[in-house]
């Protein structure tokens, strides 16, 4: 999904910094963003357009007013799930928590943190009574703890709307040409007809990011030069690989009219930002979120990483779950207010960041996130030298039963170790499946050692790293 420009306007919040250079969208982009996509969302039963319009108004409110609206929505949300969701109905009764008494996000501290293990153990009881259609999702596993959960139409509508708002800050919109460098498994590269039709209608093209061989990188560069996308979307590591390859080949990509590269799903390093910006001749916009945790934050052209505070509460806590002082790093914990049919309250993301009390010069009242440690998923390299995204291995592990967590360490091109934290249902019979799957990716002659461990070590930053390659 992609996104248009928010220019300088007056009104609440004072002067607003123009998001991007003023350019008029094409006739097709206006048709796609103003007619075709709203029709598409309406047919799916989504309220994305109305939510985006609400968010584009509320972003200019004073921070105190945004906080008041958030508190009201939080109270209504907690009252709703306390009445309709068995898991939270029992939790509130057991802890003596009264959702009607909630006056601010600080009141959430009376509730325990929610872990992936909790969701795995109580998944069916986390569905609201009388819920509407729910879609089953898996996390990509980059956190090392694969998770199955469910999302309803309300949450889908919010995620689309929040991303749409954020990307419109950068002068692009639905219908502008987009290249998506993403982790679609190589075996499943053929998209279903409806998705292919939709992507074609909105001029968005998926380029699978798993394999980064010389020939595949040549294809990426050739596609970008031929189709001249207005925007890019993908992993920062994958876009950096493509940019470096183009430089090595002497191929210019900064003369194609790319306006912005949206990056997400990994930590964005300064060197990656500089390389992508230089080679593609565009700005780089960082985003933070996940299918499980929701659309959490996005960077604006003035450099602020804005939290989607109208519909999501973000806390930073220490190792004991206690709030850290403003400006101090802590684990990010989220409460997504648009997902009452399968709610996450105080959900542990496993990511470390700093909540920033300063104001962004863009004039938006949305609070800021900085120093995001983020999820880091490395690349790995096959025995024949083919570089591929770490998700190529994660997808093998994430759906296997009995695995609570994992870490993959590629020692050399000929040796890869897989550490597994088993749960009560673990069966060693999955080991051949893991070995065969890894050998299909890395090479038939690669030795794959699978070990069971009680726990996985953290990095000094407090983050886990689940794909580590010493072979690149």
Question: Explain this structure to me?
Answer:
- Helix 3 (63-84) crosses helix 4 (86-95).
- This protein folds into two domains: 1-375, 3-Layer(aba) Sandwich (Rossmann fold), CATH 3.40.50.12780; 379-469, 2-Layer Sandwich (GMP Synthetase, Chain A, domain 3).
- Strands 4-3-5-6-7-8-9 form a seven-stranded mixed beta sheet, sandwiched between helices.
- The chain has twelve helices and 19 strands.
- The two termini are 32 Å apart.
- The chain is an alpha/beta fold and 472 residues long.
- Mean pLDDT is 89; it is low at 1-22 and 186-190.
- The radius of gyration is 22 Å and the shape is globular.
- A hairpin with a 5-residue loop joins strand 8 and strand 9.
Give helix % range: 25-40%
User: What is the CATH superfamily label of the largest domain?
Assistant: ANL, N-terminal domain
* Average pLDDT score: 89
Taking pLDDT < 50 over at least 5 consecutive residues as the criterion, the unreliable ranges are 1-22, 186-190
Structural class: alpha/beta
- CATH-defined topology of the largest domain: Rossmann fold
Rg over C-alpha atoms, rounded to the nearest angstrom: 22 Å
Trace the largest sheet across and list its strands. 4-3-5-6-7-8-9
Number of domains: 2
Q: Just name the CATH architecture of the largest domain.
A: 3-Layer(aba) Sandwich
Distance between the termini: 32 Å
> What sort of overall outline do the alpha carbons produce when their principal axes are compared?
globular
**How does the major sheet shape up?**
7 strands, mixed
Number of strands: 19
* Residues in β-strands, percent: 15-25%
Secondary structure tally, helices: 12
CATH classification class of the largest domain: Alpha Beta
